[in-house]
């Protein structure tokens, strides 16, 4: 096996999996996104680092170019780690990369990671499910909020927690849609930026304040009763390093 | 800090986080569930292991007894790892344990884990989101499928992937509800038992066949177009060990 599609977790390199850390330590090449940048510190000294992430305001490397790069690197016989923020199969386009490798006959493995969708809220003291408050959680992308792929009325009616990833730019429109579909305008919201990292920022507001709130990308936006919780106030994740 | 609420990941101990492995290696006491049993192999030799999991057909330790045990252990000054299958804040009742510790004034940390809800499908070659097939994923518990906490009509209408945890016993009723709410009876379903473990089993069927299909607990049940994919056929996770 030469190509590993690896989840880098939510940001703190301590939250990589044991397997991910081992593969990084043995890698010849690491192809990474912006959100996985911190974890490249765990790569073998001398490993080639290829940044295919989108810089703020910059241009992203097209997905088919990344697919082609992975196929080429895989055929070169080098040990390749494709390092993706969070989990490779949750909005990570890992499925597309896996398909491209499979079609090219390049062997690969998939290494699940800790998803930011749940870990960023956790780092802010928010459990995405909690007895009596939420018995379901929906993770949606805000990236294509208007294209009809997501039935926001159904999201609003579901009655559980909603986590929006890549939704900073569209947060106002999403909030409007959810309120129009019947969600309480006073529903608690928490936006967690750089969750689990030392520079983590948490902003809390009501759903009808989300559009005007100063939320910056990348943030995980949590909508629902659990967003009012702060179980971690006594014990931020950083304390675990002590 | 004396108590750590730690996610053990989906089953394969190689998918623990680096921090979880380190905390286990230093633990005096490990309080674990059945689903986290394999990971106790990483505990410090000599560490006390306390199994509070529910054996098949057996009785579970009541949650308030677990809460009380964690508070008592935390006050004893020993290094306590509360090891929970998957992620502690996704149907792990980690929120309740965190609250109990906070109320008792016992310092604690939360260590997110790789959730079975996404990793079990991944281990079966199924990405929970995939371009053109699914732009959202909802994780629900089947444990209290009939108590009204979840709006199954909304789940059916959402148009994304649905992952049901703890839903083996209620799978027939859930499938009926989803079909009644308009979901295509031919919607692909995959039930992944012991996902990521060597004894992993994958059963695939149509939604209207789920009730009669021989699914055994514990399984993650994936409903949606992505459940027909098998991206991992060429490269099971076990291959990564090679």
Characteristics:
five-stranded parallel beta sheet, five-stranded mixed beta sheet, 10 strands, 23% helix
Strand order of the largest sheet of chain A: 3-2-4-1-5
> Please, what is the average pLDDT of chain A?
91
User: How far is the N terminus from the C terminus of chain A?
Assistant: 38 Å
Number of helices of chain A: 6
Helix content of chain A: 10-25%
Description:
The structure is a homodimer of 242-residue chains. With 242 residues, chain A is α/β, with parallel strands linked by helices. Helix content of chain A is 23%, strand content 21%. The first copy, chain A, contains six helices and ten strands; from the N terminus they run βαββαβαβαβαβαβββ. The first copy, chain A, has helices spanning 18-25, 63-75, 94-104, 116-123, 152-157, 171-180, and strands at residues 3-7, 29-32, 48-51, 80-84, 108-111, 136-141, 161-165, 188-193, 201-206, 219-223. The first copy, chain A, has a five-stranded parallel β-sheet with strand order 3-2-4-1-5, with helices on both faces. The first copy, chain A, has a five-stranded mixed β-sheet with strand order 6-7-10-8-9, covered by helices on one side. In chain A, β8 and β9 form a beta hairpin. In chain A, α2 (63-75) crosses α3 (94-104). The termini of chain A are far apart. Residues 233-242 of chain A have low confidence and may be disordered. Chains A and B meet through α1, α3, β5, α4 and β6 of A and α1, α3, β5, α4 and β6 of B.
């Amino acid at each position: 096996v030469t190509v590993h599609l690896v989840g880098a977790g939510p940001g703190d390199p301590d939250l990589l999996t044991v397997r991910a850390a081992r593969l990084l330590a043995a890698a010849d090449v690491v192809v990474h996104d912006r959100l996985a940048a911190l974890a490249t510190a765990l790569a073998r000294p001398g490993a080639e680092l290829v940044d295919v992430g989108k810089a703020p305001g910059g241009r992203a490397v097209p997905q088919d170019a990344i697919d082609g790069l992975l196929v080429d690197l895989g055929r070169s016989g080098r040990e390749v780690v494709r390092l993706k923020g969070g989990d490779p199969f949750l909005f990570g386009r890992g499925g597309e990369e896996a398909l491209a490798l499979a079609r090219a006959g390049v062997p690969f493995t998939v290494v699940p990671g800790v998803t930011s969708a749940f870990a960023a809220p956790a780092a802010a003291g928010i459990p995405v499910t909690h007895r009596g408050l939420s018995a379901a959680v929906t993770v949606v992308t805000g990236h294509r909020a208007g294209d009809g792929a997501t039935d926001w009325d159904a999201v609003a009616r579901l009655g559980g927690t909603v986590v929006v990833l890549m939704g900073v730019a569209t947060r106002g429109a999403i909030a409007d849609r959810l309120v129009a579909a019947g969600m309480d305008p006073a529903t608690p919201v928490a936006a967690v930026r750089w969750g689990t990292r030392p520079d983590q920022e948490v902003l809390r507001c009501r759903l009808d304040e989300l559009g005007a709130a100063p939320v910056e990308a990348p943030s995980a936006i949590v909508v629902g009763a659990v967003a009012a919780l702060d179980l971690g106030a006594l014990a931020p994740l950083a304390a675990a390093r002590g």
